[in-house]
């Protein structure tokens, strides 16, 4: 029954939700992810520093990449290629392309409806924009419970299982020892709260991402003459035009979308929880940054893994095995035995930061449901650490199937909310676009123009001031032009 339910929800409903609504958001916004693509890099460059001890847009991006760039980029891509063939990679690209618009709007809304938490930081996400934007407390609580179960518990056990078994395969380390070490290290970070989680992610995410891209690019460049033919095979296989993979057309679409969503999380409602913590001048600035993270996750990192597997010569149609071993053996086939060790170490870093991200999502949901009670927080931390240790020694097939179901329900609730608040999202986007068209490089959000919305005056004060004198002059000049 669980398998049948999972097949319908994550194999059919999820595809319709992610691709269908993502396409709708793309068309209605006049292809916002393409129009702002070049702008993404300038926003990213300007977002390095926080304001007054608050988290910066860059730190929020690193937090979201901590979750997006995880086991899904290594093991998930391996699973997609194993079960769906090369064509699954194409459908991962499609999912990311339309998902960039979904991420843009969900993260912009999260910023607009964020709340000051009393400690000089912010909290936000789908539960908050559902409650304050739609006034549907029951729907907000449903989302928070699903988020807590999926990310706080199920996905953490899965991530622990993935990394401990990878270390066992590469170094013959017993899973109970690596599981215990992982739980202890994570516990030391958890006690520092969101600022310590952000600091660790700030350090590890760029290191793990650049190292992984560097090694996989070496493999790709060393076989660059094969890349054009392989890209052609990916596209042809996506439509059943490659004879060797013609029988995998349905699986290519399903696995491409499922594993693509698992990797980049666009539309699931997870990234808005960390997008909301950033101190930004305009909500849309964080929407632009988070759309960039979807691009980086799928078009760069997932594509690197896919080409690594497909160019290695290790993968053949009908391959049987798990995604981790496929990726490890593919790299080892090209660079030697150290490739297996590298994948295991890279996966360990990916999973470590991913669990930090999952933990924070669960903590955010917990605070929404029960407030800032210390007992609830300590109980939650203990349960997460226990589950990480337990998950390292289990076969989590059933848990993973259950997590797939709750992940699809998360997407259903979140995308329904984004759809109902889409007019608000368009207003935010048009306000941002209008200021940029008037020559303002860094648009500033003025809550007086949105007084009909339930915004937090502590998060968005009535008289916003640009950070520098140059920006004040720029804003006045833009107002005169308008």
Automatic annotation (TrEMBL):
Where does the record place the region Disordered? 460-482
Where in or outside the cell it occurs: the entry states: Cell inner membrane; Cell membrane
Task: Tell me any Pfam family this protein matches.
Answer: Na_Ala_symp
The transmembrane residues are: 6-27, 65-84, 134-154, 174-191, 203-221, 233-254, 291-315, 341-361, 373-393, 399-422
InterPro entries named in the record: Na/Ala_symport
MF terms (GO), sorted A to Z: amino acid:sodium symporter activity
Q: Carries keyword Cell inner membrane?
A: yes
Q: According to Swiss-Prot or TrEMBL, what is its membrane topology?
A: Multi-pass membrane protein
Q: Which UniProt keywords apply?
A: Cell inner membrane, Cell membrane, Membrane, Symport, Transmembrane, Transmembrane helix, Transport
Superkingdom: Bacteria
Q: Does the keyword Membrane apply?
A: yes
Q: Compositional bias of type Basic and acidic residues: which residue ranges? A: 469-482
What is a single cellular component term in the Gene Ontology annotation? plasma membrane
Q: Which family does it belong to?
A: Belongs to the alanine or glycine:cation symporter (AGCS) (TC 2.A.25) family.
Q: What is this protein called?
A: Alanine:cation symporter family protein
Origin organism is: Pseudomonas berkeleyensis
């Amino acid at each position: 029954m669980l398998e049948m339910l999972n097949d319908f929800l994550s194999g059919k409903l999820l595809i319709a939700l992610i691709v269908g609504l993502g396409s709708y958001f793309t068309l209605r916004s006049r292809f916002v992810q393409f129009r702002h693509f070049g702008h993404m890099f300038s926003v990213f460059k300007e977002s390095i520093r926080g304001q007054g001890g608050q988290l910066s847009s860059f730190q929020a991006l690193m937090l979201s990449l901590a979750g997006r760039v995880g086991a899904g980029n290594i093991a998930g891509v391996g699973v997609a290629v194993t079960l769906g063939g090369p064509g699954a990679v194409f459908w991962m690209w499609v999912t990311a392309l339309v998902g960039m618009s979904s991420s843009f709007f969900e993260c912009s809304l999260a910023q607009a409806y964020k709340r000051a938490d009393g400690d000089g930081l912010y909290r936000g996400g789908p539960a908050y924009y559902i409650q304050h934007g739609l006034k549907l407390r029951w729907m907000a609580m449903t989302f928070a419970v699903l988020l807590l179960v999926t990310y706080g518990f199920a996905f953490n056990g899965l991530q622990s299982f993935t990394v401990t078994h990878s270390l066992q395969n590469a170094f013959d380390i017993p899973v109970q020892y690596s599981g215990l070490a992982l739980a202890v290290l994570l516990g030391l970070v958890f006690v520092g709260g969101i600022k310590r989680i952000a600091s660790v992610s700030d350090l590890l995410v760029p290191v793990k991402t650049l190292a992984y891209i560097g090694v996989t690019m070496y493999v790709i460049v060393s076989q660059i003459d094969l890349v054009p033919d392989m890209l052609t095979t990916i596209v042809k296989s996506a439509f059943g035009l490659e004879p060797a993979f013609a029988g995998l057309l349905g699986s290519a679409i399903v696995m491409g979308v499922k594993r693509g969503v698992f990797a980049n999380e666009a539309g699931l409602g997870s990234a808005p929880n960390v997008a909301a913590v950033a101190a930004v001048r305009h909500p849309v600035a964080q929407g632009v940054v988070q759309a960039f993270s979807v691009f980086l996750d799928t078009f760069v990192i997932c594509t690197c893994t896919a080409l690594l597997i497909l160019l290695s010569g290790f993968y053949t149609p009908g391959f049987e095995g798990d995604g981790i071993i496929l990726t490890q053996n593919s790299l080892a086939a090209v660079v030697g035995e150290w490739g297996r060790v590298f994948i295991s170490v890279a996966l360990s870093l990916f999973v470590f930061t991913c669990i930090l991200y999952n933990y924070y999502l669960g903590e955010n949901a917990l605070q929404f449901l029960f407030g800032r009670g210390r007992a609830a927080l300590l109980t939650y931390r203990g349960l997460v650490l226990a589950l990480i240790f337990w998950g390292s020694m289990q076969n989590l097939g059933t848990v993973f199937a259950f997590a797939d179901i709750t992940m699809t329900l998360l997407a259903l609730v979140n995308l329904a909310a984004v759809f109902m608040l889409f007019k608000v999202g368009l207003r935010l986007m048009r306000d941002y676009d209008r200021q940029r068209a008037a020559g303002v490089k860094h648009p500033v959000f003025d809550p007086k123009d949105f007084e009909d919305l339930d915004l937090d005056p502590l998060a968005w004060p009535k008289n916003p001031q640009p950070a520098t004198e140059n920006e004040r002059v720029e804003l006045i000049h833009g107002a005169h032009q308008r």
